[in-house]
Amino acid sequence: MRLFIAIDFPDELKNSLAGVMTALKKCDVNASFSARENLHLTLVFIGETDRAEHVIAAMKKTGGSPFSLKISGLMSFSSREGETLWTGVKAEAELERLVENLKKNLTERGFELEKRKFAPHLTLARRAVFPDRRTAADFVDVVGEYEVKCREIHLMRSDRVNGRLRYSKVFTMPLGKFSR
Predict the structure, then answer these.
(1) pLDDT score, position 5
(2) Residue 179 in this model has a pLDDT that exceeds 70
(3) What is the DSSP letter of 174?
(4) Which residues, listed in sequence order, are joined to residue 160 by a DSSP beta bridge?
(5) What's the rounded mean pLDDT across residues 15-35?
(6) Tell me, what's the pLDDT at 180?
(7) Active-site residue identified among 5, 7, 40, 111
(8) Which of 46, 32, 47, 36 has the alpha carbon at shortest distance from 10?
(9) Higher pLDDT, 179 or 124
(10) What angle, rounded to 10 degrees, do the helices at 93-108 and 52-62 form?
(11) Given this model, what pLDDT does residue 178 score?
(12) pTM of structure
């Protein structure tokens, strides 16, 4: 199984972000846009493993309290595949603590995790090409500002079905339920 720990978003936020992607398409931005149902915030990418029960134990040991996220802006970065469009996530310090504790508890259970610093963002599109030499900065007004309360985290499974990524929840942990 290909696993990751994430925050899933309520339908109203997913609908708003799907509206942003539709607006970008109408502005002739050519890209591989994220599927509405796949919009999430990855906290820790785990990768291929058959040890889901160990991930769940690490999540329960981590605990954590509910917190708020603010989502806004449109940025891009270049990769081998082209421009990746994303919206920024600003969070309370609780999000940073949660991610660090998850990584610590997963590492203690023998998981090898990415070493790069956590940079919270929501990927909206990959391989983006802008019309008329424009950039992501030219489209920043397309994205509003959203605030969402995070009350749970999820262990997610990633599968490719008929050529498309599909994410499914393996385990849901309410924040504040388990103690450190």
Answers:
(1) 97
(2) no
(3) E
(4) 165
(5) 92
(6) 44
(7) 40
(8) 36
(9) 124
(10) 140
(11) 55
(12) 0.89
DSSP states of 7-54 as a string? EE--HHHHHHHHHHHHHHHHTT-EEEEPPGGG-EEEEEEEEE-S-HHH
Per-residue tokens: 127: 């391989």
Structure tokens at 91: 């969070």
Q: Is 1 helix (H, G, I), strand (E, B) or coil?
A: coil
SS3 at position 166: strand
Find out whether 98 and 62 touch, Cβ atoms under 8 Å. Answer: yes
User: Topology of domain 2-174, per CATH?
Assistant: Cyclic Phosphodiesterase; Chain: A, (3.90.1140)
pLDDT digits (tens, 9 = 90+) for 41-89: 999 999 999 999 999 999 999 988 999 999 998 998 887 777 899 998 9
Alpha helix positions (H), the chain: 11-26, 52-62, 93-108
Marked catalytic residue, from 2, 36, 97, 121:
121
- The answer for residues whose C-beta is within 8 angstroms of residue 104's C-beta and 6 or more apart is none
| 151 vs 64: CA distance, rounded Å | 9
154 labelled catalytic? no
